[in-house]
């Protein structure tokens, strides 16, 4: 189990008890204001002991005692609003893959899954999985193009000890590589965001061309009742300029009168992730500034890359997960010494362009043998692209690619204080 703790100074706001929470906060602040006013009014008649450390400090600065109290009381209004997020993760499904080899799939490698919820419930639906086959019996790392496959959930997510999906085969392919949309080299790494108002899934994925090899962040849309039907997917093409390398789009859908945001990219060709905005979820204006950079000498020093779409928390702020990597983990794969981890940021509820906090430690790392497997396509990798909300407040289930070979699942819980 991994834990990340944050401390910040935003407003306290819980939608489940908004009126009471706001009344309590304003009552305390009003009381502090009245006390401060009285202190200032009668400051000449007040004698304050000089024995406290704060008094001695302000005395050295020649600050009047009444002014000192005013500053401290103002600071206390922020202390009332102080907030801590604690994020924990725990593997489920009895520490076994939810999509493995053999009976689970006819493909050799199955990984990097996006959860596609049903219109009925966020705890029902299925996953879009990136699937590949080997092209050589002797070369473990020689693979063909990637396909996007949908498989429905067969079990109830109220019991996370056993999670089952329908077996995967060619008949479940919903998006495949074609020359028509510049994806001859494959379609990779889906992320799905559901618009409840329009009953539409917005699926961002990488369409990789063959000559030259360029990844382009692309969009497909589909209604929730048609996610298993390949002919119902509308392929809308690249989000940005075709000449630009792009991938990994995590979409935050907001109310119709507000901008929605796409947190996208990786640090392969830049210093970090970027941010784009949209009014219609189809056309985007990209910011040229790096939104989430790599950090030197940390667990996200080699790479940062988008995860799944952000989810709103009970305090109104947004939780966004992201993928990261660091060097220093040698393996038998030629030229590969990287370990992938998962981190998070808290985005401001009023302005999701603002980061309130970024995790100091990873909340999820390769630990199990099948996550570190030296005989996999890419050892020492956990990579998250899909998740869904569970019944308990601020509790989620995420699906992750393990060693670019299998799909695992874990429960994530946020405690807000």
Low-confidence segments, given as residue ranges, are: 1-28, 32-37, 39-51
Our count of helices gives: 4
**Total number of domains:** 2
Care to count the β-strands?
A: 23
Rg measurement, Å: 25 Å
CATH domain class of the largest domain: Mainly Beta
Helical/strand content category? mainly beta
Tell me the distance between the termini: 20 Å
Order of strands side by side in the largest beta sheet? 1-2-23-22-21
CATH architecture of the largest domain: 5 Propeller
The CATH homologous superfamily of the largest domain: Glycosyl hydrolase domain, family 43
Fraction of residues in helix: 10-25%
Keywords: Glycosyltransferase, Transferase
Protein name: Glycosidase
InterPro entries: Glyco_hydro_beta-prop_sf (IPR023296), Mannoside_phosphorylase (IPR007184)
Organism: Planoprotostelium fungivorum
Summarize the structure.
It comes from Planoprotostelium fungivorum. With 417 residues, the chain is mainly beta.
Would you mind describing this structure in some detail?
The protein contains 4 helices and 23 strands. The chain has 417 residues and is mainly β. The chain has 2 domains: 7-81, no CATH class; 87-416, 5 Propeller (Tachylectin-2, Chain A), CATH 2.115.10. Strands 1-2-23-22-21 form a 5-stranded antiparallel β-sheet. Strand 12 (260-264) and strand 13 (272-278) form a beta hairpin. Helix 1 packs antiparallel against helix 3. It is globular and about 80 Å long. Mean pLDDT is 86; it is low at 1-28, 32-37 and 39-51.
